[in-house]
Write a structure and sequence with these properties.
The chain is α/β, with parallel strands linked by helices. The protein is 40% helix and 13% strand. It is elongated and about 65 Å long.
Length: 203
């Protein structure tokens, strides 16, 4: 029988994304074997996490407070707006060095089956951003999944009469694969050879 404190830790760790019961047990055992100094440091980092990470009011990615470094960089190409699902999707694209435009974090994907439409995400914020008139091309860096396809189609259809051009990353990524699991070369090629998207015409 496991000590109650260890059992509670394993149960909590098992609730983290990507961790199952066995992985949680191994991680708990690892932590149990560490020195108090390391555990205190780790606990302090977790406590400070919410205080040190903010949401950029412009792109809704992560920031250290206020506007993020990417949005604040006047050298970025403001005519290009890359739409991603969540903030972590920005960083694999940044690491490739193949894109110098700006980003917009949608906060999820459209799922018609579950009734999740654009307004349940950041649809209104996206409309306001495009209404400013500075964006000339919207690049969809979303999963090639049912939800990803539905999201791309819905947004492109809504803005079909606007002068904005829509494009998608080239299909170098496996269907359903997340951006953070793609290697840098694949992402760079997908961005370089992105394809124009038109509602009803595919990409």
């Amino acid at each position: 029988m496991l000590p109650e404190s260890l059992k509670r830790l394993i149960d909590d760790l098992a609730n983290l994304p990507g961790l199952g019961p066995r992985s949680a047990e191994r991680l708990a055992l690892f932590l149990l074997q560490q020195e108090d100094k390391y555990l205190s440091h780790l606990a302090a980092q977790i406590r400070e996490l919410k205080k040190g990470v903010d949401t950029c009011p412009r792109c809704f990615g992560f920031s250290s407070g206020g506007t993020c470094d990417i949005c604040a960089d006047s050298k970025r190409d403001a005519s290009q707006l890359c739409i991603v699902e969540d903030p972590l999707d920005i960083y694999p694209l940044e690491k490739t060095g193949s894109y110098d435009g700006l980003y917009f974090v949608l906060g999820g994907l459209v799922d018609p089956v579950r009734g999740t439409l654009l307004d349940a995400l950041r649809g209104e914020e996206l409309r306001s951003r495009l209404a400013e008139g500075e964006v000339k091309e919207v690049i969809f860096a979303l999963d090639f999944s049912f939800e990803g396809e539905a999201t791309v189609t819905l947004i492109a259809e809504e803005f079909a009469d606007s002068p904005v051009r829509f494009s998608r990353l080239a299909r170098g990524l496996p269907t359903g694969a997340s951006l953070d699991f793609a290697d840098g070369d694949t992402l760079a090629e997908s961005m370089k050879y992105r394809r124009e998207f038109t509602p009803g015409g595919g990409s």
